[in-house]
Specification:
CATH class of the largest domain: Alpha Beta
Strand order of the largest sheet: 2-4-5-1-3
Radius of gyration: 62 Å
Distance between the termini: 31 Å
CATH superfamily of the largest domain: GAF domain
Shape: rod-shaped
CATH architecture of the largest domain: 2-Layer Sandwich
Amino acid sequence: MRKINSLKTKLIGGLILVFLSLSIAISILQMEIVNRLVIRSSNERIKLNMRSGWFYLNQKISKLEMLCNFIEELCKYKDFSEHSFRFQVENIARLYIEQRDLDWVWIDKVDSSISGENKAFYQDLFGARQSLSGYIKIPRQLLDESHFISMSNGTHPKLTDSPLAMFSAKKISCNQVDNIYVFLGIWLEEANYIVDQIQGLVFEDRFYNGKRVGTVTIFNEDLRVATTVLLPDDRRAVGTYVSIPVKQKTLKNGEVWIGRAQVLDDWYLACYEPILDHKGKIIGMLYMGELERVSKDIRFRTILITISTIIVIMIFAFLVRLRQTTVLLRRIRTIGGCAKEFASGNFSVRIPEDKENDELSELSKIFNKMMETVEKDRDKLLEQQRMIEEANNNYLEMLGFVTHELRNTLGSALFNLLSVKEGTYGEISESVNEGLSIVEDSLIYLKDITNNYLQLSKLESGDLYVEKRDLYLITDVIEPVILEFRKLLDSKKMELIIDIQEDFHFPADPNLMRVVYENLIGNAIKYGKEEGSIKLSARKTEDFIELVVWNDGEPIDQSIIPTLFHKFRRYDVKPIEGRRGSGLGLFIVKRIVEIHGGVVTVESSEQKGTSFIIKIPRS
């Protein structure tokens, strides 16, 4: 049984494929969009966090500048000696130290007593300027001078030879105070409280799975000097170094680094920006990073929620569409079932009406009208068929009866005619004998036509029975036929060539094969040349018995060969004695050959003559 591709399988399969493709495409697109949005949002947030960090540091520097300005104004309105000025500045500085807005004060008199190294430092720092603020690396040898006063804990940072600091400085000249340098500063090295405050301001010191959400670090060049990054033992990672790529890009090239960076054992979405001194030289870096795992988990949850929502919507839409498709297919199956039942012979079946009022409803109505019309036409055709069969039966009965009676009558007439010619009823004259010969030819012609019609009636009524046996072609078929045509062959002086072995035999019905050769040899005599030749041949191939009847008459027009074996087809080139054939001979030949399972063809040309070729299967 041929496998049928289910329409439901195609529709539902196509629907599933569409929904899956759509879900995958939307999910991939959504993941890409979410990734980009989250990454962009993270980068923007990091930049904003970095601005907040710089703002905090700049606020510290601003306070130092305000304090320097205050000291300068105080000096203008009060008459201080140099000693009292120093004392007063230290007292004011202690108030800021309590608020952790100041770590050290550095007061130096610009005169001839100042060492050459310090003088070079001042000249390099100030030049022609009266005030300056920003970030600076202070050489270790200057920290040991007595004029440098640490106001916080009395010690200096020990991490590097040139500690990193924020500062504000002024050169003050007023009243009794003249050319005194006042430096106010905050150490950035070991200033963990500063990075803690920045982290609290920006990240609220939140933790995620035991890790800080955000970290802040101040670098003196590539060395961490203040950081919220913790080592596995919960100590701060002060004294560790930045990665080589960041060092190359930010410290060497002065570029801002934004991206993924490994900070100890964790990955952060990080930003590194250079810290510049008063000359624009890179002396350190400010780092702020956000734990990458937070963004990844946010991205994952966002994608998961989005995809889940899409899948739920798709499933709901699929179920709705599945229900609609199932209803539609049920209606189609109903139409198909009615059509199948109609095709099997139940012509009264009709498709039930539905209330959908759509294309299928319209199709059902049209189909019902068609079936009603077909049923009516079928009834008419059956009636016409009955009448035709009745008429045909009458025709076949009449044809068989008439031909049978004519054959018997003609046979009796021929027998009596021959008896008269042979002198059974007395001697006859030459002229009477010639007249009787003419009558004999006419009776033979009528007998041939009658035989053809008799064969036709048997073929069309199905009364032609095939009794196959192992026949010998020459003795069982050809010799009896030649005997019948001998007089005609002699009258036309035609040579009959038989190229067949005496023992050539094959399974067939001898009587029917005799009818075949009677028609083919008769046609060969009719349409062959006077004093010409007729050749009979036969051979066996691997699959077929091949029988050939050839004559050297005029060739058959190629245009009529396709219809040559049709019923009542007449092909008269030079009919004998002006008579035309019945047009049934070749039709009967073709039907008899087909009954034997074979085919008959014709080949005709001016050079090769005309050959009728019969091929019958050997088995």
